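Problem: given the chain below (372 residues), write out its structure.
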Amino acid sequence: MKLTIERAALLKSLAHVQSVVERRNTIPILSNVLLAAGDGNLSLTATDMDLTIIEEVAAEVLQEGATTVPAHTLYDIVRKLPDGAQVELSLAGDSGQMTLTAGRSAFTLTTLPREDFPASNQVDLPQSFKVAAPELCSLVDRTRFAISTEETRYYLNGIYLHAAESGGVPVLRAVATDGHRLARFEMPLPEGAKGMPGVIVPRKTVGELRKLFDESDDSVAIALSDTRIRFSFGSTVLTSKLIDGTFPDYERVIPSGNDRTMEVDRKAFREAVDRVSTISSEKSRAVKLSFSEGLLTLSATSPENGSAIEEIEVAFKGETLEIGFNSRYLLDIAEQIEGSEALFQLSDATSPTIVRDVGDESALYVLMPMRV
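Solution.
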């Protein structure tokens, strides 16, 4: 194997594939990236057995071939090379080592046989449809902050993606919850997605997918079955196992009788919560919201830091109410609201609260209160 490639192009592809590779691996081959040169392209493949990424990048291939090298080491070397460098990769036939040269720099990397690398089986994924990358990005961004990190409730460790109906209109809906808050976002159902199975896309897959959106405006081809999902866009293909579990009936968590409403300027609210929460204790992060006609009072107290209070003008309907929330959760939701106004629908101090974007019906958030 022998090829020449621009440093910037190689770095971009390595950045995508190396993040799939776990830092600690009991199986040595899983620490490596598979490099395959042929037909004017360099193909890079990395896997952790649950998630596989394959990316192709243009290269001047002088001799076809394939090998595997340590992914993080190769990435760190290329990252530290000077801008504009031409990188030459060559594999000596018998030494079992790959040589990387760029200008006056030369590195020799140990390799493992490509035959040891797990085969990326192209399994049949019967359901397929396309989504514009910006729309899929919104679907991910507006829900992923609520994914649970509690491993015992593994079925909450991802985004639940499914076909549903909203007001009689078919939609593709994404839902995530950690038991304290719930995020739901929907978009028109893409052609070909009708009848798709409800699937739970794992947290790591969601994170890797999100990194790829920043560099692509292409439409994303999605193919899935009950156990696997594949995202293809540009020269990159991301294939992942799905979480084998049943997502809870989230509709039961969304309250329907919340008769007290508050409209507030999103930016002013977020900044007030951020300031007041400076006082709240690191453990609880509690902030108390006191609602009265035309006024919202935010307050926080802690034995270590003292107290804070701030008032902002709001449009509030209903009886006066005091309710406590985790300030971090309030800030996370405020960050996701793209419009200028946020709408809170409340019941009492112990019941779930609904938060909406006044200008966008496609997003809905549910937040559990806490004692303060």
